[in-house]
Amino acid sequence: SEMCIRDRAGALGQLIDHPCLPPPGKATVHYNISNAYFQGEELDRLLLLKPPKGGVPDPEFADGETYILARVPIYGTQDAAANWEEEYSGRLVGLGFRRGTGSACIFTHPDRPIQMIVHGDDFFSEGPRKHLDWLEGELGKAYDYKTERIGWTEDRQKEMRVLGRILKLDERGASIEADPALIDEAIAGLN
What is d(CA 149, CA 31) in angstroms, rounded to the nearest whole number? Predict the structure, then answer.
């Protein structure tokens, strides 16, 4: 999936209006939620999975005819993605966010100047520091996560790798580019 980029070209270079890049005076926070797809409720349907070779430790059941009954979401299944979407969207709406009508992955808060995009288990929030601190505290009540902050103040990092891209802030403005590590990985996969 690609994110929309609109060009606001200036004389000193390209200034990009991108949902993951903060405007001057604001910061962007990237939250990567741990075990996001295992957050959902117990499955409401029968889901039988054939384990991969070597996936069943007991030799008595390693005959290739054994199946596993899944009672909770399993990563990679539609149930896991649907349950996770229901979990995080319900939690964000409960915190006062409004879900986008054009895209259900965009959230805005009517009382706090926070904008958020959710891509799987990655949350990107943009806004003033005190409001992002509030959001971080609220998310921490429900989820374990890793966080990175990028911003214009001296105490913020100026570069972040996320979703196969490198986000950078410098004196010319903000930029986004493909992560060269992914290109190297793709080339290595061809050999």
Answer: 9
